[in-house]
């Protein structure tokens, strides 16, 4: 078991990992790769630090405070920013939850690509081939490279069918 303790500021910079809060959190040391478990009587509400028992490096453990489980994916999608006359564009969904998703795409010069605006998306969740059509509000915009950006989208007005399809996909 990896022992939780206060950060003491050792010579090397500590690395950070993120875990979902629970009374037993499984982690992997980002320095040496040893697997361990952090046990706490009550799930943590904020970040804490540990020392790896093998390499003695400090690790900062961030607590994931997301409301929904998020799954990393690589799913092609067609989208357009509502309120524009531009045609559908291609993008890639890089993570998805029942609350929203992150869409990576080529940088757009549209003045409509801003927080608070809406995007309509069409994509298929494996193994199904039927497209799901959803609407999402832009909550974050991140410029990733000089050519790509990503939108953090919060789903709006999901139908029961769409919500069920996404929920089943996340459980697979």
Automatic annotation (TrEMBL):
Gene3D superfamilies: predicted glycosyltransferase like domains. This is PilZ domain-containing protein. It comes from Candidatus Magnetominusculus xianensis. Residues 64-169 form the PilZ domain. SUPFAM superfamilies: PilZ domain-like (SSF141371).
């Amino acid at each position: 078991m990896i022992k939780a303790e206060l950060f003491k500021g050792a010579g090397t910079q500590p690395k950070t990992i993120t875990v979902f809060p629970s009374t037993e959190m499984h982690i992997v040391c980002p320095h040496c790769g040893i697997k361990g478990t952090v046990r706490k009587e009550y799930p943590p509400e904020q970040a804490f630090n540990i020392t790896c028992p093998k390499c003695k490096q400090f690790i900062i453990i961030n607590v994931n405070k997301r409301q929904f489980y998020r799954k990393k994916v690589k799913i092609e999608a067609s989208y357009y920013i509502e309120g524009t006359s531009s045609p559908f564009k291609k993008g890639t969904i890089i993570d998805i939850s029942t609350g929203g998703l992150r869409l990576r795409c080529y940088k757009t010069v549209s003045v409509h690509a801003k927080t608070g605006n809406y995007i309509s998306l069409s994509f298929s969740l494996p193994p199904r081939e039927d497209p799901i059509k959803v609407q999402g509000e832009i909550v974050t915009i991140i410029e990733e490279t000089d050519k790509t950006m990503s939108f953090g989208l919060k789903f709006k007005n999901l139908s029961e069918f769409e919500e069920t399809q996404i929920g089943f996909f996340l459980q697979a």
